[in-house]
UniProtKB/TrEMBL annotation:
Keyword Lyase: yes
Organism listed in the record: Yoonia vestfoldensis
InterPro entries given in the database record: Aldolase_TIM, DapA-like
Keywords, in A-Z order: Lyase
Protein name: L-2-keto-3-deoxyarabonate dehydratase
Protein encoded by which gene: araD
One MF term in the entry's GO annotations: 2-dehydro-3-deoxy-L-arabinonate dehydratase activity
Documented EC number(s): 4.2.1.43
Amino acid sequence: MPMPLTGILPVAPTPFHADGTVDDDGMRRVLDCLIDQGVDAICILANYSEQFVLSDDERAALMRLSLDHVAGRVPVIVTISHFATQIAVARARDAQALGAAMVMMMPPYHGVGIVPPEPLIFEHFKAVSDAIRIPIMVQDAPLSGCQLTVPFLARMARELDQVSYFKLEMPFAADKLAALIAAGGADIAGPFDGEEAATLLADLDAGCTGTMTSALLPEHIRPIVTMYRSGDAGGALDQWQRCLPLINHENRQCGLRAAKAVMQAGGVIRSDYVRHPLAPLSDRTRTRLLALATDLDLIALRWGK
C-alpha cells in the first residue's frame, strides 16, 4: 500500500438479489466498477455497505470474496467495528490474514446509552492495535454517540502503533480536522473526511488529505482532492461546485441507496434491494438522482451496458 494513503477511498455497497440474498457476482462487479472509476482504495463492510444487516457468516464470506477478487489491484480497507473488543480483535486478525491493507473501526457503542468511558475506549483500540501490523483508521462519527476529543484522538495516534488514519464526519469537521492535525503532527498519517464530500473543500482547507465517500461518483470527486493538493485550489473548487447538486441529493435525500440505484441503472448490479427496515427510494427521489447522475455521465451509470 502506498504510504501515506491519500485520495478517494469509497465504500463499496453490498448488492443483494431481489429476494434479499447476497449477490456474490454483483459484489465482484461492484469492486471491478470501483477500480475502473480510478479509486485509490476500496472500503468494505462499512455502514454504507449495510454492515448492520449482515450476518456474521455473510460478513466473513464477503470479506474473503472481496479480498480474493481485488487481489491487490488497489488497497482494501476492511471495517471491523464491534462493541465487543474480542470480536473486533478477531475481525482485525482475519482481515490482515486475508490481505487487507487497513482496518477501519468505530469506538465501541450500543445505542446512545451504552458507551464505555474513555479509558476503556482506549483499551479497545489498543487491543486491536497490538494484534495486527496494518494501519487502523478511526471512524469518528456522531452515529456512535461517543465524544472523541482531539486530545484523546491525538493520544491514540501517539501511543498506539497502528492508529494513524482518521475519518472525521460531523458538523464543523474542518475545525476538528485542523485541530487534530495540529495536535497530532506526524502521527496523523491520514486525516480524511466523509459525508459524501459535502464539506470537502472546507476539509481540504483544514488539511485533510483524502475523502471516504460512497461508490456513486468517485471519478469526479478524486480530481477535487488531486487538484487541491497539487496547488490548483481554483480548479478543485470548480469541480466541487460541478458535483455539488448530486452530492447534496445523495447526502440529504438518498443515503446509502444512491450508489446502488445508479449501479442498477448502469447494469453493474441486478437489483438495488436494501434489507428491511431500510426502505427503497421513492420514484420521485430516484428520478432526480438518475437525472443528476446522467448530467455528470457517471461511470457507474454506463459501466455494465
